[in-house]
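Run Tc1-like transposase DDE domain-containing protein through structure prediction, thanks.
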Amino acid sequence: MTFSLDEMPGIQALERTMPDIPMKPGRPVKREFEYIRHGTQALIASLNVASGQIAKATVDNTRTEKDLEAHVSGLLEENNAAKKYHLVMDCLNTHQSEAMVRLASALEEEQIELGAKGKRGILKSMVTRAEFLTNPSHRLVVHFTPKHCSWLNQIELWFSILVRKLLRRASFKSQAQLKRRILEFVEYFNHTMAKPFKWTYRGKPLVA
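Sure, done. The structure for Tc1-like transposase DDE domain-containing protein is below.
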């Protein structure tokens, strides 16, 4: 199974101080520019590339290494019948963390000596951890997008849908409401809109 994963931190729970004035013939919707800020939430989402559905979405206050570990661990558990997992992610430091290495090594039939973080072995540095995570012989293989090219990750397309369909025009009275609305949108998207993304970029140079 192939999953496209990334985080969307700092999603603001903004409440408009006045309701929108509805559109009518010859006049678009009018929105109040002043708002009340109720804090932020962080979204971690994994897209099933084959189906186009969001396989797992986690909304919480932070997006730490532990948050990512819990998300990926749940993703693997919910799809434990898969013989092999491919995760497409950018080069964020938490994506090359000790937690990710331990998750990958736990899927292997034989126990692997990982060493100690910052000292020796596979866990010694971000470079050694990335080499382990990208090993194609493992059951869990991570594919890192090139530096400054995270836009190649398909989950970014879904994030843009989330912004356009929900976040840009909505008003949220609390962080809890923002979290609930995001998860409700994920369920709605999976049932009514999801389909595999069709790539149109053919690898041609973008400049002459």
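The first helix runs from residue 65 to 78.
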